[in-house]
Design a protein that fits this description.
The structure holds 2 protein chains of 2 kinds.
Chain A (H helix, E strand, L loop, with lengths): L1 E9 L8 H20 L3 E6 L7 E6 L2 E6 L7 E10 L3 H10 L2 H4 E7 L12
Chain B lengths: L1 H32 L5 H22 L5 H15 L7 H13 L13 H8 L6 H13 L3 H7 L4 H17 L12 H20 L7 H20 L4 H15 L24 H15 L6 H18 L4 H14 L3 H15 L1 H8 L12 H13 L3 H14 L3 H19 L1
Helix pairs in contact in B: 1-2, 1-3, 2-3, 2-4, 3-4, 5-6, 6-8, 6-9, 7-8, 9-10, 9-11, 10-11, 11-12, 11-13, 12-13, 13-14, 14-15, 15-16, 15-17, 16-17, 17-18, 18-19
The chains are: A alpha+beta, B mainly alpha.
């Protein structure tokens, strides 16, 4: 199954770090990505620019309305993700717990919709 | 003649089907859902198979291996599930025909995957409050309305929460399996917790006025026994069953003939179920051989110490306080602290117990915890702080759900207030 591990963290956390702490942090992510890749489970990963670079688009009366933001009140923002392919939730949780992001934020683990042509499962 | 013969066959088929349902429900759900993780679909398929059994067995005779028969029918039903939505007799006939094609090789013993099912139902990714109800439904086949009444909630709300949990198991990929060695202790603790919660829910209905709840203690014991069978080398599993048997052995002694509450200290040990206590002792000895102490073993050891004291009339409060100290060290909770204080009062007097409880005075978890106020009332009364004791009794009485216990506390309060007047 494919799972998206979404890293939510405090964006100014990096700014408060010393250079050596930052290097250590980057190295930890690098090592983590490497081990996901070696284990053959990595499908994709990216770090995102800070949330103040975000733009939202929605159609209003058929016309796209573009807005700066969103500026959510919550302290932790989506900072990056890993897409992994593992047998089940336990394996996904086990990988999520090793992610450096679990130390400085939270990891939301979401299964990817498996059967795109199915109607949503009724509860 | 033929009427009564067919009536007899119907009854025989019905009772056989009910017996298989009781023993094999979880086993069949586990096998059906193992690969797809679709518990709801497995339950639907199984319900259809039981309906087919009731239609087919009276006429054709009961199969040699009813479990395998039901499994085959349910499996085919599950495969066809998405395509066929037939109901009633037509479905039953169709399934009965399918059942004729049962492969004889399948008539052997079915593998038992209930343990995997138990771990799935108590997975930490599920809301802790739904794990026990989910386990009762999926492993034992209890109806949502029975579970709802035991957990003091509406059947509609319970059904909805159960459906949401099953949906999460399927969609989030919660595995059906026994966790890896390093994860096993924590995951097993969640299973045991859920079983114990079922027992505790049932325990709060001593008179059996609410039949749904009364049965819950029996269902929980069944699950604990099943766990001992499936995991014979886990000391905490043995400890949990021992704990429940000690409690169960005394369960009828909690009320006198008039239905009034009888505290442990006033119970007649002759009314206890001694063979059950022997069984609990044996389980506890078996657990201690593993030399890996845990919460349930300690709680069982405490029960064992209380039972020993009541049977021999030899005070053993020092040993009991020590056991509570150990329990507090591995599973600290205000509830344990309250019980420890009561034992401490027997060993060192009421003031020592009140001092031990002082740090918990502002604990929000104790504000509406009835046993805390009952304990406090008792300790304050013995320490001579009558006014405070009367206030604590008021709170304890106000928070109690069980009328018999409420009357017991009211009598104690009245005795205290009249002793100070006279």
């Amino acid at each position: 199954m494919h799972y998206l591990l979404m890293i939510y963290s405090e964006e100014n956390g990096w700014g408060r770090m010393t250079d050596s702490e930052r290097q250590q942090g980057v190295a930890a992510y690098h090592a983590y990505t490497e081990s996901l890749s070696k284990a053959g489970v990595l499908q994709g990963a990216n770090r995102l620019q800070f949330s103040n670079t975000a733009t939202t688009v929605r159609l209003v009366d058929g016309k796209p309305q573009v807005l700066d933001g969103p500026f959510s009140d919550s302290k932790e923002q989506l900072a990056g993700y890993y897409l992994i392919d593992v047998p089940n939730l336990d394996a996904a949780l086990s990988w999520a717990s090793r992610c450096p992001g679990a130390g400085h934020g939270v990891i939301e683990v979401r299964p990817v919709w498996a059967a795109p042509y199915d109607a949503p499962a009724s509860a | 003649m033929s009427q009564s013969a067919s009536g007899g066959a119907d009854a025989a088929a019905q009772s056989l089907a009910e017996g298989v349902a009781r023993r094999s429900y979880g086993k069949l759900v586990a096998l059906l859902a193992m690969r797809t993780r679709d518990v709801a679909a497995a339950e639907d398929a199984l319900a259809d198979a039981f309906a087919a059994a009731l239609a087919a067995w009276p006429a054709r005779g009961c199969p040699a291996n009813p479990e395998a028969w039901l499994m085959t029918v349910a499996r085919r039903r599950a495969i066809d599930g998405a395509r066929h939505h037939r109901v009633g007799d037509e479905l039953a006939n169709q399934l009965a025909l399918l059942a004729d094609e049962i492969d004889e090789r399948e008539a052997g013993a079915l593998p038992d995957r209930r343990l995997a099912l138990l771990f799935a139902c108590t997975h930490p990714a599920l809301d802790a409050a739904i794990r026990t109800p989910l386990m009762l439904q999926v492993v034992l086949g209890l109806e949502a309305k029975t579970i709802a009444s035991a957990f003091l909630t509406s059947p509609a709300a319970m059904s909805k929460r159960l459906a949401r949990a099953k949906n999460k198991i399927r969609e989030a990929g919660i595995p059906f399996g026994v966790p890896e060695r390093e994860e096993l202790p924590a995951r097993l603790a969640a299973v045991l917790e859920a079983v114990y919660a079922a027992y505790a829910e049932g325990w709060t209905d001593p008179l059996g006025g609410d039949s749904g709840r009364r049965n819950l203690t029996g269902e929980a014991l069944y699950l604990a026994q099943l766990l001992v069978e499936l995991l014979p080398d886990e000391p905490e599993t043995l400890g949990l069953l021992a704990l429940m048997l000690y409690a169960h052995a005394r369960c009828d002694a909690r009320r006198d003939a008039a239905g009034e509450y009888v505290p442990l200290s006033a119970q007649d040990a002759a009314t206890w179920n001694l063979p059950m206590i022997d069984a609990a002792n044996a389980l506890l000895r078996r657990a201690s051989a593993f030399d890996a102490i845990g919460r349930f073993q300690l709680e069982a050891a405490l029960q064992s110490a209380h039972v020993y004291r009541c049977l021999t009339h030899r005070p053993n409060w020092g040993e009991i306080v020590q056991l509570y100290d150990a329990l507090l060290a591995i599973a600290a909770s205000p509830v344990v602290a309250v019980n420890r204080a009561l034992a401490l009062a027997e060993r060192d007097g009421p003031q020592a117990a009140l001092d031990a409880l002082a740090p918990y005075a502002d604990d929000p978890r104790l504000a509406d915890y009835q046993p805390y106020w009952a304990a406090r009332a008792e300790l304050l009364a013995r320490a001579g702080a009558t006014d405070e004791a009367l206030g604590a009794y008021d709170l304890a009485i106000g928070l109690e759900r069980d009328p018999a216990v409420r009357r017991f506390l009211q009598r104690k309060r009245m005795a205290l207030s009249s002793s100070t007047l006279g």
